[in-house]
Amino acid sequence: MSSTKTAIRDNYNSLQLMSYLREEIGDAGFSGADVEARPTGTTITVHVTRPGLVIGRKGEGIRRLTDDIATKFGYKEPRISVKENTKPELSPTVMCNRVASHIKRGTAFRRAVMWTMRQVMAGGAKGVQITASGKLRGDRSAFEKRTIGVLPRAGAFADAVVEEDIVHVETPMGLIGIRIRIAKEEEYRARESFEMRAPRAKRQRVRIERAEERPVDPKEARSAGSEGAEKAGAGKAGAEAGKAGGPEPGKADSAAADAVEETDEGVLAGDAARPAEGSA
To answer: Quick check: pTM over 0.85?
Structure first.
């Protein structure tokens, strides 16, 4: 069997197991289960608010539950451990089961919803949202949503902070669906502090100063243009005059070289004549 088919089979078995545990031990305050496969067998950790109801008298309840799980889901040598949930008000699964039990006993859904929201906020939640849809008041389906506190709606922040669960309740009027979303205070603060510690790029503000614009006088513009033209004409005339009056560069260099040679010859001749005069 390929890895993809194995993953699909395991996920399907997990969903079936969760629905089975919700029905079997829902009265004990079932809030979730962790399945861990080991070489020696499969360990299933069940989170409930009242562990005594799951264990039963002399362990009869947990033995019966173990046999049923091994038979129905095919787990090899399953071992069930029960863990108590100390904060049931912050578990969407527990609160969904409580709302469902209230509605089944004939309590108005609005009263059950408001009571549940107060319990969740009193338990230390950052925010809660309860959505009820279905045959709420009559033959036609209706939809109501109530929110208290701060509740992120989407994004990675919401995925890390918010937990939700859905339950369906059968009533004489029809089927009612309840969805509860709870934002936990501890996870909200941890996530918020983590984002605040993350470095952010600093933005540098650049201030642009604009020079004041003043109207230009037409007379000044004309005088400046005429002065520039005169200077340009004078520069061109001087350059032409210099070219016309002065010798060419090559000829000037040769004339200077001849003069230097003549001077050197005269100096040498004079030096040679002085000793002769002295001896005479």
So the answer is: no
